Amino acid sequence: MAHNLRAARRYAGSASVFAVVKANAYGHGLSRARRAFAAADGFAVLTLEEAANLRQMGVEQPILLLEGIFSPDEVAACAELGLWPVLHHSAQLDWLERAPPSRPLTVFLKFDSGMHRLGFPLAGHREIVQRVRQMRGVADLNLMTHFAQADEPAGVDWQLRPFLAELAAYGLPWSSANSAALLRYPESLGDWVRPGIMLYGSSPFADQTASDLGLRPAMRLESEVIAVQTLQPGEGVGYGQLFRAERTTRVGVVACGYADGYPRLAPTGTPIAVCGQTTRTLGRVSMDMLCVDLSDCPQAGLGSPVELWGEAVPVDAVAAAAGTISYELLCALAARVPVEEID
């Protein structure tokens, strides 16, 4: 993970870097990520609880609350913990005005430039900025937006251009770049960038691999072969018998399934590695097991090591085969999976 932070810094140039560690650091563990990203300029989380945990771990850098405060009670907590909330709707402004914290906050004012998810309308920026500037509870003001298609051909210009055109005159620090924008659109870097998925060694792009971008996988999901079956032509394996052999086929049964976080919708042909050799899955993924093709892996047998994703099998490739994205797979790693940290 530290390698990927260094890569993010290279892409970021002079911009400061918030390491996004929400959702238990995308399934990698908040404490683990805190150590790996110790050189980050700041951290970005979703909840007050995550932020408090980081402070308890000794984090002194700024911590950005990506969805801001969820109730009036959290205003005082932000001041106590020195957090930087994102403000994106009028109720949050009301809470700050009614009960300003004893220690004024650094805030990020989020504007909706086209994603239509969170943020104040760009058209109303004068009233909103003026209102926040007058608040006793605000010490420093930054501007923010979020891109909807930074990872797609549409890119960021259709959002970035109006955002800057409307707000540049304020001369305030701003943030817009997620992983995809950071990697591909240097004009979007601003003062703060917010890399997430790239820090964990996954590519945000369908047409470019993590390796192409100079990233390394931070998670390797491994298991082993716990049984070997031999199918004759016409015989099937697993629930639904979705795979039927066209030739004599050696099948390895692997101790990993959707209860461990492996995608149930991964079809026959999803890449997987046995004894370091890439092969394919066969049939339907079960709760605790899945099957792999050992026909071209004569050395493989009971106890053979299996990599479900990691160095040999990019998590992006598994996600693409299952019709999803790597974010979902990494975040879905089950609590029952034992974790070993390797330097």
Task: Describe this entry's structure for a reader.
This protein is of the alpha/beta class and 343 residues long. The chain contains eleven helices and 17 strands. Strands 1, 2, 3, 4, 5, 6, 7, 8 and 9 form a nine-stranded parallel β-sheet that branches. Helix 4 (48-56) packs parallel to helix 5 (73-81). The termini are close together. The mean pLDDT is 97.
Write a concise keyword list for the protein shown above:
343 residues; alpha/beta; TIM Barrel; Lyase, Ornithine Decarboxylase, Chain A, domain 1; 9-stranded parallel β-sheet; 11 helices
Beta-strand content estimate: 15-25%
Look at the structure and name the CATH superfamily of the largest domain.
Answer: Alanine racemase
Q: How would you characterize the largest beta sheet?
A: 9 strands, parallel
CATH class of the largest domain: Alpha Beta
**Mind telling me the C-alpha Rg?**
23 Å
